[in-house]
Amino acid sequence: MPVDRVFELNEEQQRRLILRSAREVAPKQYRLFLSTQPSLAEMERDFRRRTGWYVAGSVVGLFSPCLLWVAPTLWFVTVAPLRKVRGHAIRNWRTLVGDPVTPEDAEVEVALLAGGIRRQLRRLTHEHHAQRERVTEELQRAEKHWREFKEKQSQVEAMLRTTTLESLEYRRSEIEARIELEEDHVVLASLRRRLSAVSGQIEAFRGLDRWSSRLDAAMLECTESLQELRCQLTLLSASGTAAYQAAYQAASEDLRDLNQHMSATQAASEEVLRLGAAW
To answer: Do 133 and 182 meet the contact criterion of CB atoms below 8 Å apart?
Structure first.
């Protein structure tokens, strides 16, 4: 496919393409791109600039043998990651710009959403400076909450993968059956302690399963609040009317309220993870 076709994508699609490409082939570059979110044109400029550094380093190495290490270092550290991301993006653009289908795609979508809001905030007029500062601060908190929720959800899922509710309930039934038949009081006491431990694991498992759903809901709520704020900013940029300014103010206040709610959810989830780790 001609390279020009890729550049016909709109800017958000280009940013999504680059982030997903970097995530698959250059993880370190991906972490950097999550904050910079370059378009294809911006990445091309960066690629040409880095290639210029590499050429300059090669020339220096020709005249100064003791500096021969400069060119290979510049290539592997600065040029190669971008070249890999660029090539992968161009070859697989149809797949990479598709609808999100994995949890990692969700991370990209939230990063793009927050980045789009920041770009919109920078375009607001000076009269909205105070609001912009408040919203930027709340936006940073919302992003932080989303990332922490995602990390906790990964921890919960890892704990849930260590066993299944069915296997725990089977163990409990097995111990209960042995208790009914056991006559030795020492063995009976041990079985009862095991029964108590397994029952505790079952309750913890059910609690973790509930919290996995709650974290999913919290992440979705956070994303939808950011989407609402972005819509209000778009309307404000287009019209600047008092009505839309009021709507924008309401959306920013909703974001602040959401962050307060998310902080409480974070604290509760920490305790659940601590208890879940015990089994």
So the answer is: no
Residue 12: per-residue pLDDT: 87
Measured CA to CA, the distance from residue 13 to residue 139 in angstroms comes to 22
Contacts of 229 (CB under 8 A, 6+ apart): 117, 135, 139, 248, 251, 252, 254, 255
Specify the pLDDT at position 57: 67
pLDDT at 174: 92
Q: Which residues contact 43 (CB under 8 A, 6 or more apart)?
A: 18, 82, 85, 86
- Cβ burial of 251 (10 Å; 0-12, 13-18, 19+) is buried
Closest CA to 136 of 124, 127, 147: 124
Burial 207-234 (b: 16+ CB within 10 A, else e): ebeebbebbeebbebbbebbebbbebbe
Cα gap 217→43, rounded to integer Å: 35
DSSP character string of 233-278: HHHHHHH--HHHHHHHHHHHHHHHHHHHHHHHHHHHHHHHHHHHHT
Query: How high is the pLDDT of residue 1?
Result: 44
CA distances, 275 to each of 160, 268, 272 (Å): 13, 11, 5
Tokens 């029952």 found at: 199
In the structure encoding, which two tokens stand for residue 92, read together?
């697989």
Query: Which residue has better confidence, 257 or 243?
Result: 257
Whether the Cβ atoms of residue 12 and residue 116 lie closer than 8 Å to each other: yes
Is residue 18 predicted with pLDDT exceeding 90?
A: yes
Residue type for position 169:
E
Above 80 in pLDDT, residue 129? Answer: no
**Mean pLDDT calculated for residue range 134-147:** 82
